[in-house]
Amino acid sequence: MTKTLDSINPFDPEVLACPYDFNHALRELNSVYLCPNTGVYFVSNYDLVVEVAKNEKRFSNKFSMIQSGVNTTPDPEMIAILKKGWPRVDTMLTADPPQQRRYRSLCQKPFSISSVAKIRPYIHDVANELIDQFISAGKCDWMESFAVPMPVRMIAYILGVPLSDMELFKQWSDANVASFSVGQTREEALRSAELVVDFQHYFADKIEARKIKPTGDVLSDIVNSSADGETPMDMAECLSVISQLLVAGNETTTSTFAEGMYLLAKNPEQLNIVQQQPELIPNMVEEMLRLSTPTNQMWRICLEDTQLAGVDIPKGATMMIKYGSANRDDHQFRQAADFDVTRGNLKTQIAFGQGVHHCLGAPLARQELTISFQNILRRITNIRLPEGEPELTFQPSLLLHGPIGLNIEFDQCE
Ligand code: HEM
Question: CA–CA separation, 31 vs 41, rounded Å?
C-alpha cells in the first residue's frame, strides 16, 4: 500500500495542480507520511492538521529558507538584482511568537472586523462597477473581469495605491507569488526578482513620506504604529509585511472568487437554492472557501523530537500541513467533495488556518466575497460554462492552489 504513496512525487507539478487523489490516498493510508524522496513529513487529515497548526511551540513557521522546497545554488545575477532592494526579513507568516505577535499587533487594526466593516460601501460600489462592465454581454472572462481586479482594488485601496498604478500593483503581486510557483524558468525568476525590487522602491518612497508626515491612511497606521512601547518597524520589516499583505490578500481571494463561481456554474441546483434564499450567501462563501482552500498547504519546522499519530518526527524535520486535504476530510465534512450551500458545520472549515497564524485578512476576504456574491447573484442568473469550456485547471504551486482561467455565460436577472 505504502508503495503507492512512495511512487508519487508530491512536488510534481501535476500533483500540485491536482492534489485531490494524492491527498485522499494520504488520508486513507498514512495521515502522517514521511516522503522518502523529499524527506518531508506530510500531515493530511483534519484533526492532525488542526493539532499541528495550533501548536506553534512545537511546530515553527520560520520556513523562509526552505520556501523553494529544493536546494538551489545561489545565482550571481539574482543576488545582484536583489542587492538593489532591501533584504527579505521574517515577519508575520514566517516568524514565531513573540516576534510574530509584535508584527501582528502592529498591523492588525486596519484588518479588524470593525475596521473592515467601514469599507463595506466601497466593496459594494466596486463590485457593481465591475459587474456593469460585463453584464450586457451575457458572458465574460471571469478572472479578468472580476476575480482578479476585485481583490487587487481592495488591497490597493487599503494601502493607498492610486487606481492609475493598479496594473503595476498586480504585476508586483504576481512577482511576489512567483517565489512559490513551480517550473519557473531562470529568466522568469530573474524578471520576478526585478519586479520585487521595483515594488520595494515604490513602497519605500511611500513609507518614507508617511513616516515624516502621516496621512491618516492604513499605510501610515502600519508604518508608524508601535505596540507595547516598542519602536515602529524599520524599512525592511515594513516591506516584508506589505509584501505579505499583497500576496496573501490578492492571490487567495482571487482563487476563491474563481473556484466559487465555477462551483456555482457546475451546480445549478445549489445556485438555485442560494438565489431563492440569499441569506445563505455567507454560508455559501464558507463552503466555497472550504472546497477551494487556496492556501492549500503550509510548511512547518519541527522544533523538538515529537510523535504525531504514532509517527516519530525528529527535531529539525520539515513538515507540510495540508489545509486543503483537511477541508476535504470525509470524517469532518460529510461527502466532503460535494458543494452544499446548506452544509451545517462550516464554522469548522480551516481555509484561513488555525492558531496564532490564523489569517489576518479573514474578515476582509469574507466581506469581499460575501458582498460581491450578494451583488452578483442579485444581478445575474443561469450561470453556466460556455460550450467547450474545459474543466478548471490550476497553477502548480508549492503552497497555493489557484485556477488558471474561467469563462462563464449567464442571463441577467429580471
Ligand atoms: C480567501 C482568502 C484568504 C485565504 C484562504 C487565506 C488563508 C490564510 C492562511 C491559511 C493563513 C495561515 C498560514 C499558516 O498557517 O501558516 C493565512 C495567514 C495570513 N493571511 Fe490570509 N488568506 C486569505 C486572505 C487574506 C487577506 C485578504 C489578507 C490581507 C490583506 C491576508 C493576510 C494574511 C496574513 C498577513 C497572514 C499571516 C498571519 C500571521 O502569520 O500572523 N490573507 N492566510
Answer: 10
Please state which of the ranges 230-234, 235-239, 400-404, 409-413 shows the lowest mean pLDDT: 230-234
Mean pLDDT rounded to a whole number for the chain: 92
- Residues 191-216: tens digit of each pLDDT: 989 999 999 999 999 999 998 998 87
Domain coordinates of the chain in residue numbers? 2-412
Q: Where are the beta strands (DSSP E) in 24-177?
A: 32-34, 41-43, 59-60, 139-141
Percent of the chain with pLDDT over 70: 95
pLDDT tens per residue across span 40-53:
999 999 999 999 99
Q: Please give the Cα distance from 295 to 403 (Å, whole number).
A: 12
Strands of the 139-141 sheet, one edge to the other: 139-141, 407-412, 380-384
Query: Ligand 1 pocket check: which of 250, 254, 295, 370 to mutate, most ligand atoms within 8 Å of Cβ?
Result: 295
Hey, which of 357, 359, 372 would you mutate to test ligand 1's pocket, going by the most ligand atoms within 8 Å of its Cβ?
Answer: 359
Lining residues, ligand 1, CB within 6 Å: 53, 61, 92-93, 100, 104, 155, 244-245, 248-249, 252-253, 256, 289, 294-295, 298, 323, 351-353, 357, 359-361, 364-365
**Residue 205 backbone dihedrals phi, psi, to 5 degrees:** -60, -45
Domain 2-412 has CATH 1.10.630.10: yes
Three-state DSSP class for residue 301: strand
**Residue 397 to residue 18: CA distance in whole angstroms:** 10
Q: Which of the four pLDDT bands, split at 50, 70 and 90, describes residue 271?
A: very high
Separation CA 22–CA 10 (nearest Å) = 8
